[in-house]
Amino acid sequence: MSARPATPSAARQAFGNGLDHAWSQAAASLPGGDWMRQIRADALARVVRSGLPGRRDEAWKYADLANMRTMALPLAEAVRVPVEAKAAVSADAHHVSIANGRVTQIPVPDSLPDGFEVLRLADTLDVPSLWLRPFLEPSGSVVDNLNLAFATDGVLVRVGRGMTVASPLVVHNSASLSGTMSHDRSAIVLEEDARLTLIEITGADATRDALATSRLAINLGRGASLVHIRLSSGTQGAALVQDGSVELAAGARYGHVALSRGAGLLRQQANVRLAGEGAQCDIACAYAAPGGHQVDLSITLHHAAPRTTSRLLAKGIAARKGRGVVQGRVVVDEAAQGTDSHQMARGLLLAEGAEIFHKPELEIYADDVKCGHGATIASLDPTQMFYLQSRGIPATEARDMLLEAFVQQVTDHAPDALREDLMAWATRHLLQKEGHA
Fold first, then answer.
1. Percent of the chain at pLDDT above 90?
2. What was the pLDDT predicted at 437?
3. Does residue 61 have a pLDDT over 80?
4. In contact, 129 and 135? CB cutoff 8 Å
5. Between helices 395-411 and 416-429, what is the axis angle to 10°?
6. Burial of 380 from C-beta contacts in 10 A (0-12 / 13-18 / 19+)
7. How far apart (Å, rounded) are the C-alpha atoms in residues 434 and 437?
8. Average pLDDT, the chain
9. Phi, psi of 190 (to 5 degrees)
10. Please, are residues 189 and 145 in contact by the beta-carbon 8 Å criterion?
11. Counting beta carbons within 10 angstroms of the beta carbon of residue 166, is it exposed (0 to 12), middle (13 to 18) or buried (19 or more)?
């Protein structure tokens, strides 16, 4: 007599039991005093109660993490992972390295200008800190709570009032995770009128099931400005979730450029709150989803103050059996009169069996606003291909030229000094031949 299949509640209970076991094995090695252990335990209990998000959660409709990760995984051990990605940027920079959720390299304090601080999260958790506590509270997000429960390390950055950091801060985040999971958690605070360029380079390598989460909380003071570049890639065995929040005070500016090559699941989600009058946000993303890979971009832009501005541009390329998802949600509060917001998603299907889904949303409670959205999904334009081939350009080269132009509209949102490096990375990772099949 065959056994009855497990019910969803039984599967969730089994996953929760697995998490409890992973916690019992890892708790003693996690950084932080008693106050932090209580926060971790609370966050873990919330994850166990709800389970991982899946199709029943509208925001995860296309990225069924619950179905992908039905078994809880042990926490990855500390390991020094080679950081090949340092060649991705040629500019002089301050470097941080994170391997399997643990900081392995950080700038020497004496090498940093006064007013610019870069610390390891693990070094700050023994004693409660008032400024850090808001970044370490359980929330309504399952992924955030999972990360909080198991976070082994991260980087804390503060830029003092009126300070401009001339060289970029480059964070290399590498994971080698077959059959394990890793979690890191970071926070960046720019005080009034501060300036910083942040470059994240993330890679997750797994030959079999693995889960990595990375949480980044950003707080921009009045008139502060952050340029945030993110380069991400993963292998088919990895589920990589990059979770973020951005809070903008009056007159603050946030510019974000993301280039992503898919993993088994590469989920990039962000909640941006324009909390102060005149705050501005410009997000531009380009992704490639090769066969068997998935990229899921989920971004909420919350206009909470008058005369705020946001732009969202997402451009994706999907190959056969590759999937791309763009979910852009704009919320305009009643107090946010004079809001100017627009989002555009464009996708290219390179072969039969490729999938791209666009889901734009507008939720508007104010009267005086200018909000719009657009979405297109198509294949390469045969007219443009014919034109290039009629000029003697081979078909493969013509296709590469069109794809490069398609992605370049995103890299053009980056500062001039970084565009060449970003386009070179995109050519290697987003436009390589195996991603076109």
1. 70
2. 37
3. yes
4. no
5. 140
6. middle
7. 6
8. 90
9. -110, 120
10. no
11. exposed
